[in-house]
Design brief:
- By secondary structure, this protein is α+β, with helices and mostly antiparallel strands.
- Helices cover 34% and strands 22% of the residues.
- The protein starts with a strand and ends in a 10-residue tail after the last strand.
- The protein is globular, with a radius of gyration of 15 Å.
Length: 162
Amino acid sequence: MSYHLAQVNLAYAREPIDAPLMADFVARIAEINSLAEASPGFVWRYQTDAGYPQEFGDQLVLFNMSVWDSVEALHAYTYRSAHAEVFAARKRWFEDIKAKLGLPHMALWWVKAGELPTVAEAKARLEYLGQHGPSAHAFSFKQRYSPTGEALAYAKPAPATA
């Protein structure tokens, strides 16, 4: 059986998305989403008609969910593409989600290839990770699990090559 990696991440905006403070972030959303979709290993990205998913009922909570063919593909996109610039600047726009909601900012888990995660499942994985720590049910980049549930040793990825 083949598996894909599901990920959910949250951000708690310092101000509403249309506030001047958020303008630099908003200006890069389409670029970063397009970059994800063109990245090796990308499978699917959650989207809503509203444009900015507000799955927590709070306009300041930004919700993102996607599926990738491997942890390595998601890690490369997150930390070795233009997304890394936005991620590095996140404190300009976002507050600590754990302090605001008591949840980790992200969770990873495996889904059967061809299946898509739901918003309810993503929320449950975040809650589980926050309450129980990493496991095969929900994990992070630092403590990974295989699709069959084995804990994997963390190996810092090699730096990007030119």
